[in-house]
Design brief:
242 residues, alpha/beta, four-stranded parallel β-sheet, 8 strands, globular
């Protein structure tokens, strides 16, 4: 089984970190391939960067030259999953939905701890669109930019833990969800300090994608995610432009 794990930004070191986390939970025989978009922002923390990432990821995935069995979009609260589902015949799993749905198996309410406050509305909207907001106690911002997660890891962990503790104490969250692909691998540290289950979206998405492939299931094509109708699309795919 081959699963493509697409980073939504162009920072290769973050792709490497995401891939490392994905491989740590993948079953024997599952091949994890990291995808870094050819264009886009170095980090995604707002609507412009998110919509740009959606196009960049679709471009990168549709230009991947080898067969694959599933795709994971590794950006929390980012746009584009629906477009991938229209374009592909294999399962597409977004880490936002994978993490939140997994959290609901583990407790009554979950809270998401993300990066900057400006990302909170985007995440809230994506959870609402996915029908997952009813059991979300809160979406909290650590105040750390995405790139700072790598540049200042100790400070990042402290900020994430602090907001996680507040979510458990004040918002009555029973599960914490790490709301950024760049937080992959921090779940153990947060769990030690909060005492509650901590869900990493990348890890959750890998296990869900593997399950869908093994069950022989993929996206329904009868209506919402039907293959795009044949028509002239100027300049697509972007990577094919000289």
């Amino acid at each position: 089984m081959r699963i493509l794990v697409a980073n939504v930004n162009t920072t290769q070191s973050m792709t490497d970190s995401i891939v490392e986390q994905a491989r740590s939970v993948a079953a024997p025989g599952t091949e994890i391939i990291g995808i870094t978009p050819r264009f886009g922002a170095e980090s995604c923390e707002g609507n412009f960067e998110s919509y740009l990432a959606a196009v960049a990821v679709m471009d990168a995935i549709t230009n991947y030259p080898e067969p694959f069995d599933a795709v994971i979009q590794a950006g929390y609260g980012e746009h584009g999953r629906e477009g991938l589902q229209e374009l592909l015949d294999v399962p597409v799993v977004d880490i936002t939905e994978a993490a939140a749905s997994t959290a609901m198996f583990l407790g009554y309410k979950y809270s998401v701890v993300t990066t900057l406050d400006r990302a909170v509305p985007l995440i809230e909207d994506r959870l609402k669109l996915a029908g997952l907001e009813a059991r979300c106690a809160s979406v909290r911002a650590s105040g750390m930019a995405v790139l700072e997660l790598e540049e200042e890891p100790e400070r990042a962990v402290e900020s994430i833990v602090e907001q996680s503790e507040i979510a458990v104490r004040d918002d009555k969250a029973e599960v914490i969800v790490l709301g950024c692909g760049g937080m992959a691998g921090l779940n153990d540290k947060v769990r030690e300090r909060t005492g509650v289950p901590v869900v990493d979206g990348v890890a959750a998405a890998v296990t869900i994608a593997e399950s869908l492939v093994r069950l022989g299931l993929s996206t329904s094509k009868v209506r919402t995610y039907a293959t795009p109708r044949p028509k002239k699309v100027t300049g697509w795919p972007i990577s094919g432009i000289a």
